[in-house]
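quick one before i forget lol
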Amino acid sequence: MPIIVRLDVVMARRKVRSNVLARAIGISETNLSLLKSGKVRGLRLATLDAICRYLDCAPADILEFVPDGEVEQVVPAKAAVRR
């Protein structure tokens, strides 16, 4: 999928834990974990709005469009950020 979810990076920069964000925006920790890992097929705009309000960011900080041919180049960089 050409949409990369960078929620984990934004949360780390703001030092926000998953359980705190999940409670603040009204979703389960399991659903937040699935969202962070990019394993969801859809995202409600109300949820995206709540995340952006709580983290004081824009949707583009969390979601990135990457053309199909470039996905392989982006994923290792994302893994390097997690270390």
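fyi The two ends are 23 Å apart (CA to CA).
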